[in-house]
Amino acid sequence: MKTSKQEYTSQELFVHRHKMQHHFITFWRITIFVFFLGLWELASRTKMIDPFFFSSPSSILTCFWTQCTTNQMMMHILITLFETVISFLLVLLVSLLFATVLWHCHTLSDILEPYLVVLNSLPKSALAPLIIVWLGTGIKTIIIAGMSVAAFGAIISLHVGFHQVDKEKLILIKTLGGTTHDAFVKVVLPGSIPIILSTAKVNIGLALVGVIIGEFLAARRGLGYLIIYGSQVFQLDMVITSIIILCIIALAFYKAVQSMEHHIKKRYKFM
User: Fold this and answer.
1) Model pLDDT for residues 148-180, shown as the tens digit of each residue
2) Other C-beta atoms lying within 10 Å of the C-beta of residue 65
3) pTM, 2 dp
4) pLDDT tens track for 199-249
5) Contact 224, 87 (CB under 8 A)
6) ∠ CA(249), CA(151), CA(153), 5° rounding?
7) Contact 153/163 with Cβ under 8 angstroms?
C-alpha cells in the first residue's frame, strides 16, 4: 500500500508540475501580448509613431465595431472562412487520393516526382493571375488559388510519409497472403495518421494564404479584398484590422486542427 501511495503521489506531483508549467507559459503569452498592445497604444497617442500609418489598438477596435454595425465585416470574414475551409478540405482529399495512387504505382511516382517538386517550388502568387485568366473571377477561382498553394506540398509530404511505414509489417502482410490493398488499408494508412495530421496543420495555414492571394486579385468580398481596398484608399485602420483578424483566424484554425490531432492520438494511442 505504501508503494502504491508513493506512486500515486508522484503521479499527482507530475500532473501538478505540468499544469503549473502550462499556466506559466499561458500567463507570459498573455502578458507579452497585453504589454505589446499597451506600448503600441502609448506610442500612437504620444506621436512616437505616426497614427495614420501605424494606427493603434483603439482605432482598430473602433474600425472593427464600425464595420460590424453595418454587417460588412462579418460578411467579409464569413466569405474568407468559407473559402479557406473548402480549399483545405479539397486539398486534404486530393492529396490523400493522389498520394495513394502514387504509392500503389511506383512507376507513375518516379515519372511525376520531378513535376511535383517543380510545381511545389513555384511562387504561387505567379500562378494566381493565370488561374484568374483561365477561370475568371469568383469564389471558385479563389478556392482553386487556395488549393494551388498547399496541394503539391501536401502530396509530396503524404507520399514520403507512406513510404516511411515499417517495412517489416508490409512483408508480414504479404507473407500472410494479403494484397497490396490490404497492406495499404491495414498498415500504411493507419501508420501514416501522424503524418496526415501534421500535414493538415500546415495546410490549413497555406490554404488561408492562397485564398488571400486569390482575394487580392479576383474578389469583391473577403478580408483580402478589404486589405487591397483599404490600401488603395489609404484607410490603413481597415488594412491593419483585416490583418489582425486574419492572424486570429489562422490561430483558430491551427488550434482546431491541433485539438483534433490530440483527440485522435489519445483515442488511438499514437505516439
Assistant:
1) 888 888 999 998 888 887 777 777 777 777 777
2) 11
3) 0.79
4) 888 888 889 988 998 888 877 888 888 888 888 888 888 888 889 999 889
5) no
6) 100
7) no
What is the structure's pLDDT at 81? 92
Question: What amino acid is encoded at 45 in this protein?
Answer: R
Say which residue the cell 488603395 belongs to.
232
Q: Grid coordinates representing 205?
A: 495555414
Residues 69 and 63 sit within 8 Å (Cβ to Cβ): no
The confidence score (pLDDT) of residue 137 equals: 77
Contact 58, 45 (CB under 8 A): no
Q: What is the distance between the alpha carbons of residues 96 and 196, in angstroms, rounded to a whole number?
A: 9
Look up residue 56 and give its amino acid: S
